Amino acid sequence: MNIKKLIVEFVTVFAIALATTAIVTFLWNVIGHGEITIDWETSFRFAIIFGIILTWAKSREIKEK
């Protein structure tokens, strides 16, 4: 897997994870606490972690084939 494909994979996973986590933290705060806020710190943390781990797992899977 070349570097361009790795970057595209990482950005894709990062964007999906960021959006999903932002929506979940927003809903959690609205339903659970009655506040209209998004926890951006948690959203970016999860997006970075999932971006790295899932991109790494995908590259290992491709190398094994």
Please indicate the percent range of residues in DSSP E strands (runs of 2 or more).
Answer: under 5%
State the shape: elongated
Average residue-wise pLDDT: 94
Largest sheet: none
**H/E element sequence:** HH
Q: Structural class of the helices, strands and pairings?
A: mainly alpha
| SS field, number of helical segments | 2
The portion of residues assigned to helices is: over 70%
In whole angstroms, the N-to-C terminal distance is 11 Å
Question: What does this entry look like structurally?
Answer:
- The chain has helices at 3-33, 40-64.
- It has 65 residues and is mostly helical.
- The longest helix has 31 residues, at 3-33.
- It is elongated and about 50 Å long.
Features of the shown structure:
mainly alpha, elongated
Write the layout of secondary structure elements.
Blueprint: H1 3-33, H2 40-64
Helix pairs in contact: 1-2
Short description:
86% of the residues lie in helices and 0% in strands. The termini are close together. The chain is built from 2 helices and no strands.
